[in-house]
Amino acid sequence: MTDTDDQRRAVNKLRRLKVGALFMEMGTGKTKVALDLMADRQKKVEMNVWVCPCSLKSTIEEEQKKWHPELSLTVVGVESIGASDRIFLNLLNEMAPHNNRVFLVVDESLKIKNIKAKRTKRLLELSNYASYKLILNGTPLSKNILDLYSQMCFLSHKILPENWYSFRDMYCEYWKTGPRAGRIKRTCNVSNLISRISPYVYDASLNLGVGQSHWSHGYSLTREEQDAYEQVKEEILMDCCEDSDINFYRLVTACLHFLYSCESKKMAVQECIEQAEGKCVVFVRFLASIPLNALRITGDMGTDERQAAIEQFRTGDSKALWITFGCGAFGLNLQFAHNLVFADRTWDYAQMEQAEARVYRLGQEEHVDYHTVYCTSVGIEDMISRNLDRKTGLLDEVKDKVSKMNSKEKAKWLKKHL
User: CA dist 107 to 57, 76, 355, Å?
Assistant: First the structure.
């Protein structure tokens, strides 16, 4: 495959720098750009390290063999660095003897947006042992401008030399009173921030020359399902402790789990798949949403099993491939299909965007249709839609709404709106 103009421009810009950010939309080929930049530095580098979500490891290894088989590449899961002392220390000990002659890539760099998280602290420590560094992401911001700080710190403290608190005060204004006190009210001085980071950033939008359409498919619960849904809420609300975040999560998750397991919803999804022209990639949040004996990719499957399922889907008679968000929103190349169905939805905007990019990416030659199946008879679906439109968190909205209510008022509000 011939390099795109964006890929060539990205390499030409960043090959003159020791550090850089590829903020290229999903599907624009940023993995190959990063591998090209690695290959370009091999006379000055003794070790190449690629940190990415665990679900992406096999994909990165395949891309490396495809584009630059001459490279020796150590691929490590970002979750493993945060969770395992052994894996982190082993990698640190492997990098240290090379006297900074290391090229370190962090793929899906939003995984290090939280400056207080263990994985972020460990990656910042690893960055001290690398002279050449890249971060890759299609969506550099998931919530607000603060997401950029730790990503730039990973590249070099010289880019944003101020500490996190000074950075926050420079570019954000906060609510001082009320239920949102301490939260960001608005961003400011954005043009100044862009001017500071732009020398190190290449960003690209995906333009395949093929169109995209989004379709909504509403359905209603039966009276029996509606009653059962209300009972699920009632039972959890009876146990709901005031100001308990975990119970908000439990309530929302239980409501969605029940909703997405209903027969009415399953019938609506099946009808959507049957009416679509061509193969459908179907994303779900819960395993219970996947029909028995359906072709699937789930978290308990190994790399070989996943690849076998993709190949069976590509060459066989199966109309649909069912994938859970947790393992399939990153890294899969499914551009031979041109229908994507959201049978379930997640309140994580970046995860939904990642899922869409599994089919709308380089190599897609047909118009892509996205289908969202949603329930019209419950409030929680409307809340998810609003939050995805605003790229905010569902749980944050719920906690904002009920923060000043007593237990009785809180339960009444949740019962009505969820």
Answer: 10, 10, 16
Q: What is the DSSP letter of 209?
A: S
Helix/strand/coil for 129: coil
Paired with 297 in beta bridges are: 323
Residues 117 and 195 in one domain: yes
In terms of domains, do 195 and 251 share one? no
Euclidean distance between CA atoms 289 and 407, whole angstroms: 33
Confidence band (pLDDT; 50, 70, 90) for 240?
low
Q: 103-119, pLDDT tens digit by residue?
A: 999 998 888 888 889 99
Q: Is the pTM of this model over 0.70?
A: no
Which one of 151, 181, 204 terminates a domain? Answer: 204
Residues 199 and 222 in one domain: no
Q: Write out the E strands in 125-270.
A: 132-136, 172-174, 184-187, 201-204, 212-219
CATH number of the domain residue 374 falls in: 3.40.50.300
Long-range contact set of residues 172-176: C-beta below 8 Å, sequence gap at least 24: 172/144, 172/145, 172/146
For residue 353, count other CB atoms closer than 10 A to its CB.
17
Q: Distance (Å, rounded) from C-alpha 392 to C-alpha 112?
A: 18
Co-location of 153 and 217 in the same domain? no
**Beta strand pairing call for 280-284 and 339-342:** parallel
Same domain, 79 and 219: no
In the predicted model, what is the mean pLDDT of residues 296-314? 87
| Rounded Cα–Cα distance for residues 322 and 115 (Å) | 35
> How large is the average pLDDT for residues 172-196?
82
Q: Report phi then psi at 189, rounded to 5.
A: 55, 30
Terminus-to-terminus CA distance in the chain, angstroms?
49
Which H helix or E strand runs over 271?
Answer: helix 263-275
Domain that holds residue 310: 212-417
